[in-house]
Design brief:
The structure holds two protein chains of two kinds. Chain A has 19 helices and ten strands. Chain A is α/β, with parallel strands linked by helices. Among the domains of chain A are: 220 residues, Rossmann fold, CATH 3.40.50; 61 residues, no CATH class. In chain A, helix 6 packs antiparallel against helix 7. The longest helix of chain A is centred in the first third of the chain and has 27 residues. In chain A, 49% of the residues are buried. Chain B is of the alpha/beta class. Chain B has one domain. The chains are: A alpha/beta, B alpha/beta. Chains A and B meet through helix 3, helix 5, helix 8, helix 9 and helix 10 of A and helix 2, helix 3, helix 6 and helix 8 of B.
């Protein structure tokens, strides 16, 4: 019941003895629905205890084995292809997360240290594995549920207090990392340092605590360094974080003392962090977007500030330090420039607008950008979002052209030739009018973003849009197009058409990746019961006073639901029906 | 000879010496197998060897921890203070005049010694006599759980299952109950049941990954497959007084409850039958203090 992209990931996990990938996928799906049904208090009894145990066993096997592959194989020099590691990380994250959700009734000893609490650690583990797999929103939803103890320095008395402060700090940094919160200043207690205790008799238990405080301090430092790097505050932050974590990992291994496992958790956490930092650094916004190469020097200079601004966010907007897989492909193929046209066909919520924003930010260096949206309401929203996102470009204004008057009657709604770098947001019809009146003002248009481009297929409005694109390619010699839609099923054909109609350089971008799970369901009625009960109810209603317009009657209903994407076709084991009561 | 070398020599000697004098017998029962290892308490030489190994275990753990701290601080390693730490476990003497003294002996000292002895037993199995550990050849053995704040498992070993390119995990649960064998088995089964219910999954995952690093390079690649196949051995290890009689060839219904579909679980009971239970632990404690003082 996973979507096409997630199913491909499941197919990518490496061979394990007698593995049945369909069984893995079904175990994940069944666990997911069981968790959902438990929350909704429906159909919990529908799955037998034995089936549930079998599912839990499979999930545990998947979690353990695939985490081992995604994280520890690489660190132990047993390299696997990156896509296999990503797939393993995603499936391991799903398995561990669902296993934890199915195990809420497993008793957990009370521990003060939040990093030693099993449920916390498993949540951290699955969130970090989701980050490795590129499913950031799943990581955010897990991290947001983690409770970070509010411990001030006043709570840091003695070894126990110190350990608690540092553990809470590390947890808060992990939450910040998963949620992409890289902006300074951070409201947190500084990590406690310990003076060297000196020589002499050593209480072993005290020593373990003291070491743990020092380990936590280092892990916290490493996370801070990385967060600073992601936010563009420190260029050496990445190297520093890796260096610190490698040292923590090596030291916790206690080489020379094989089998010393007192800090197995630190070894495990530092290993996970090393891999997640390595993988997420490759999709950091600031360091993976090529800089514009041609155009206005001042605008180009502001581009770096723009990336920082977007990575960090501000008081009203969350930061976006990581690129999603959907964006990465566009970036590597079409930037700097954009250097080719693109048809971006991605599901809703998977980052199309950000692809358009990055293309816009690049294209602004060499001209102005036309942003087409099918409705005035959407144009307003795009204007609002872009105006905020592009703030760091001092010379750039984002102008909405959404007035109800004729184009020529409002001077503020005219494209100003004196301005070279701006974004004009309007509907295709509005733009067609402007094109007829002032075609020369489109000469310097360097990019046309066409949101909801399936409008091209609209019986009434499609022709206008089609002609507009043709005119734009005629009057703007250096224009590039980004056509976007979540509803285009033939992006390849559209790209071929665009390529032949323009300059032969167009690429279809058809990532089917979604940032999180989406459930799609179908509620259906028992037709026989409906037929049997409808007529008596109708008769009853007809006998009632005229003011009565409805009567109730019962019809059994059921829900068939799946994670978004096509239903799989492997037969009944892929479905489960739940009666509604 | 420096302190670490003396400790290492004492531990190596203990393994070699006891490996040469211990005897074992394997019994089959419908629900489990039993490996009875005898010869731990034949004379003072055996007890001395055990005591030295136990002191060594504690000293190594402290040494490892001090080494870690020195690396974290970039400073010189502190000296190991063995005696104080040995006394912290076994007490100044064997007195049991107060309730607290009795409690400590029963619930802290004896369990720790029992666990340490079976660590030694597994070390002998790993280095000299693989037949003591019937599920397979031990490749990695963790340190005994020497402190409550130690995050590792009690005693755990990774073993290779011959001809299957797989590793299994042995979990040893020691119980030192003088005359309550039923209680010891029941408590050990309780722990293994918790393992089945995934209560310790995280610690197992963490422990196996750190132990993996000590495996030969070509063997490390087998760990994911082994996780997947979920092969493991549960080793209940009751230490009890020889006056209690148990026929270990009888079925134990509680072991049947440990079965899990799709998991290969080997149950090997490893009883340690002790002549004069109290004296044995007291004498081991005396030998430990004596060895610690001599260092």
């Amino acid at each position: 019941m996973y979507d096409e992209y997630a199913q491909r990931l499941i197919e990518l996990i490496p061979d394990l003895p007698e593995i049945d990938r369909d069984a893995c996928r079904r175990a994940l799906s069944a666990a997911y629905f069981h968790v959902i049904c438990s929350k909704l208090a429906i159909g919990q009894d529908d799955i037998s205890k034995q089936d549930l145990e079998e599912i839990q066993l499979l999930l545990r096997g998947m979690g353990d084995a695939l985490e081992s592959i995604a994280v520890f194989d690489r660190l132990n020099g047993l390299n696997r292809p990156a896509d296999v590691e990503n797939a393993s990380a995603f499936v391991a994250a799903e398995a561990l997360f669902l296993l934890a959700a199915l195990s809420v009734d497993v008793e957990e000893p009370s521990v003060e240290d939040p990093l030693l609490k099993t449920s916390n650690y498993v949540a951290i583990e699955s969130a970090l594995l989701y980050m490795i797999g590129g499913y950031d929103i799943n990581a955010v939803s897990i991290a947001r549920d983690l409770e970070v103890p509010a411990v001030g320095l006043e709570g840091a008395e003695g070894i126990d207090g110190g350990r608690l402060v540092n553990a809470a700090y590390v947890l808060s940094r992990i939450v910040a990392f998963c949620c992409g919160e890289v902006r300074r200043p951070r409201q947190n207690v500084p990590l406690i340092r310990l003076p060297h205790v000196g020589r002499g008799p050593t209480d072993y238990e005290l020593l373990l605590d003291e070491i743990r405080i020092r380990f936590y301090k280092r892990v916290g430092d490493a996370l801070d360094a990385y967060l600073d790097w992601l936010g563009g505050y420190r260029s050496d932050g990445y190297e520093n974080s890796i260096r610190i974590l490698e040292s923590v990992r090596n030291v916790s291994l206690a080489s020379g003392y094989p089998g010393y496992t007192a800090f197995a958790d630190i070894y495990h956490l530092s290993s996970l962090l090393l891999v997640v930092i390595d993988r997420t650094s490759r999709r950091s916004l600031i360091y993976n977007i090529p800089r514009p190469t041609d155009g206005d020097a001042e605008v180009i200079q502001d581009f770096v500030a723009y990336l920082r601004h977007r990575a960090r966010g501000d008081k009203t907007h969350v930061g976006r330090p990581f690129l999603w897989p959907s964006t990465l492909e566009y970036v590597s193929d079409c930037l700097p420039g954009p250097n080719k046209d693109a048809v971006v066909a991605m599901p809703t919520g998977s980052g199309k607008s950000f692809v358009a924003e990055l293309a816009t930010a690049h294209a602004l260096c060499s001209g102005w950008v036309l942003y087409l949206a099918p409705t005035n309401a959407l144009a307003h929203q795009i204007h609002r979002d872009l105006a905020h996102a592009l703030q760091p470009f001092q010379k750039v204004k984002v102008r909405p052209f959404v007035g109800w008057e004729e184009y020529t009657t409002l001077t503020e709604e005219q494209i100003d030739l004196a301005e070279r770098h701006f974004v004009a947001v309007m509907t295709p019809e509005k733009c067609a009018l402007a094109m007829r009146l002032y075609p020369e003002r489109f000469t310097n248009c360097s990019l046309c973003v066409f949101d909801e481009c399936h409008l091209l297929n609209d019986q009434q409005r499609g022709v206008t849009a089609d002609i507009l694109l043709a005119q734009l390619s005629m009057v703007a010699p250096n224009i590039r197009f980004v056509l976007m839609s979540a509803m285009v099923s033939n992006p390849k054909e559209l790209a071929e058409w665009l390529s032949s109609a323009h300059d032969g350089r167009a690429a279809p971008k058809t990532v089917r990746w979604r940032p999180s799970r989406t459930m799609r369901g179908l509620l259906f009625l028992d037709q026989n019961a409906l037929d049997a009960n409808f007529q008596p109810a109708k008769t009853e209603l007809e006998q009632l006073p005229e003011r009565r317009v409805k009567v109730k009657f019962n019809v059994p209903m059921a829900l068939i639901a799946g994670l978004s994407g096509p239903w799989t076709m492997a037969g009944p084991p892929d479905y489960r029906e739940y009666p509604f009561r | 000879m420096g302190l670490p070398e003396r400790i290492e020599e004492a531990m190596t000697h203990a393994i070699q010496y006891l490996g040469g004098v211990l005897e074992w017998e394997i019994l089959e029962a419908p629900t489990h197998r039993t490996v009875i290892v005898t010869g731990w308490n034949r004379g003072s030489l055996q007890r001395q060897a055990i005591a030295r190994y136990l002191v060594g275990l504690r000293a190594c753990a402290i040494d490892a921890a001090l080494n870690i701290r020195a690396k974290l601080e970039d400073s010189e390693e502190d000296r190991i203070e063995v005696l104080g730490n040995v006394i912290a476990i076994v007490g100044e003497d064997n007195a049991e005049e107060t309730e607290e003294q009795k409690r400590r002996k029963t619930y802290e000292r004896n369990p720790w010694i029992a666990e340490g002895i079976w660590h030694l037993c597994m070390a002998i199995a790993a280095q000299q006599h693989p037949e003591i550990h019937p599920p397979g050849v031990i490749f990695a053995l963790n340190y005994a759980h020497v402190a409550t704040k130690d995050h590792g498992l009690d005693v755990a070993a990774i073993y290779e299952i011959s001809k299957r390119d797989l590793f299994g995990l042995s979990l040893i649960e020691s119980k030192a109950y003088k005359d309550n064998i039923g209680g010891a088995i029941s408590d050990a089964v309780g722990f293994f049941r918790e393992v089945n219910k995934r209560k310790h999954s995280l610690r197992i995952r963490q422990t196996v990954q750190i132990m993996r690093s000590s495996l030969p390079g070509d063997k490390q690649a087998q760990i994911p497959n082994s996780f997947w196949k979920r092969t493991r051995a549960y080793l209940p290890n009751p230490h009890y007084d020889a006056s209690c009689r148990v026929d270990w060839t009888n079925s134990r219904p509680s072991f049947r409850t440990l079965g899990l579909d799709g998991v290969n679980i080997d149950i090997i009971v490893m009883p340690h039958i002790i002549n004069e239970f109290d004296n044995f632990f007291n004498e081991i404690a005396d030998e430990m203090r004596a060895f610690a003082r001599s260092l």
